[in-house]
Amino acid sequence: MAAIRGKDTTPELIVRRAIHSAGLRFRLHQRDLPGSPDIVLTRIRTVVFVHGCFWHHHDCGGRRRQWPKTRAAFWRNKIETNVARDRRVRTFLRAAGWHVHVVWECELKQGPVLARLVRTLLRRRDADV
Known about the structure:
By secondary structure, this protein is an alpha+beta fold. The protein has three helices and four strands, in the order H-E-E-E-H-E-H.
């Protein structure tokens, strides 16, 4: 598990490329915000979290949803803690006036999800100008 990266993962790079190619500029992993969002668009007060289905327990039905067989109690506790923290962070950011988007690893295989996210971000930017 030491080889698992928390930053610059393949799903995150895919989302970053799509947002950047649309002409939007952003900051990465801004530590002064709760949860250190993967992508922060400060001008339009929007954050994007790119979550792995296993680590954040997405209910997508894929093989990554299965609980590990070894040290089951440890992993269940760890992942449930991640889910609870994600919920707290989203609530706090929304209360502070940020728009929060979550992109799941499994959704990146579907083109419309990224296109919809980029359209939403562009609309928000154009409304702000």
